[in-house]
Amino acid sequence: MARDRRAVVAAAAGAGAALDEALPPPPFPSLDRLLLQRMRKSQSGTTLYGDGVAADTAAAAAARAVAALAPTGESRLIVVANRLPVSASRDKGGAWNLQVSAGGLVSALMSVQNFDTVWVGWPGVYVSAGPDRDALTAALHTARYAPVYLDPTTVDLHYNGFCNSVLWQLFHYVPLNLDSTLDETKTLQTQWAAHQAAAAAFADAVLAIYRDGDVVWVQGERREGGRVGAGTRAATPPTPPPSSPPPPDYHLMLLPALLKLRAPRMKVGWFLHTPFPSSEIYRTLPVREEVLRAVLRADLVGFHTYDYARHFVSACTRILGLEGTPEGVEDAGSLTRVAAFPIGIDPERFSAALERPDVRSNIAQLLNRYAGRKVEIGGDGGDAWRPSRVPVPSPRPLLSLSSRSCSAWTGWT
Asked: Is 349 within the bounds of a domain?
């Protein structure tokens, strides 16, 4: 294991040098630049979170966000996620089978129209180079997935280490331990090196399939399950299970800088599914500037809510000394647009499902089973950083509703 960790650190040295080259030097404020920024700010009528985006469906907002990055003519959409939206397993004959993961994120992105979509991400299993990996790669390519193979040590240090033990806690307002010992400091440095190496591997995979005119959307996913089994080498996928959505986002915050370094004209969007903390919390991250500057190389940065977008802009202005505008963040004349795009579902897909014979049959069975009774449905998700909650009994106003209002069907999900 120690030898594997040294190999990861050595491999990350090149990635770190590439990242340093990709990031621009800190800006030196000048009168001309400040005047130009003020002029643009005064002439802009755009807001970070306009009423139009709030009123539309999330699918339409996402489509507009992607379309804003797309040049004229036909383009492919390259969706980059830490985990592919499929789970790979073998059947009894040894052939690889792919099972599409369930989840709102996958449903939302797969509903984007007018783009030939290709996914890039970690397949969730480690297969050594050879015929087995070639067979898995072929199966994934057939389904328009481009795999990024990470060795178990890198997965452990990058995913379980830096991402889940540092970034996840910070973004959910769990304070980092600043009273670190020398061993803990070395561990953080090793995790950061693996994080850089993983980002470099993803950049290589994207650039291997990229062509002029493609739009690259670096997408985060909601965190489900828990610790990923880094040593998983068998055909069965690690946790989370196949039915779960892919692991979370924030893993690829360094990717926009690495992509722009090698393809400056590439159109890159980056979306964060988790909260983004206030600048007072974020500034406790030891590599806070490197991460912010890497994200700012994207053309468009998206968040779920206006508050998250505001926290990001505030961090850029207070930590990096950049200028925040109603459109986003400006760095030496280069503007990164920042906006809120709340994720949701494709309404037409669910409306169409109501007309399917099997769905209508299930509805009829439920109506017959619960005839004359009021039905209350609740859903709750577990999370490593939130305690378990016991469902609260229904409030009296809900129970006092008329039978007519309770029996009216307004949708089916």
From this structure: no
Amino acid found at 21: E
* Angle of the 182-209 helix axis to the 255-262 helix axis, nearest 10: 50
Burial class (CB in 10 A: 0-12, 13-18, 19+), 36: middle
What is the Cα–Cα distance from 185 to 196, expressed in whole angstroms? 17
pLDDT tens, position by position, 271-314: 998 899 999 999 999 999 999 999 999 999 999 899 999 999 99
In a domain, 12, yes or no: yes
Domain count of the fold of the chain? 2
CA distance 303 to 297: 16
Render pLDDT for 216-237 as a digit per residue (tens, 0 to 9): 999 865 444 445 544 443 333 3
Which tokens go with 68? 């804003």
CA 383 to chain centre: 17
- Based on the fold, state whether residues 390 and 326 are members of the same structural domain: no
- Residues 124, 237 contacting (CB under 8 angstroms): yes
Q: What is the pTM of this model?
A: 0.70
Sort 28 into a burial class: Cβ within 10 Å, 0-12 / 13-18 / 19+: exposed
- CATH (domain of 112): 3.40.50.2000
Q: Can you give the residue range of the structural domain that contains 364?
A: 354-407
Under DSSP, is residue 400 helix (H, G, I), strand (E, B) or coil?
coil
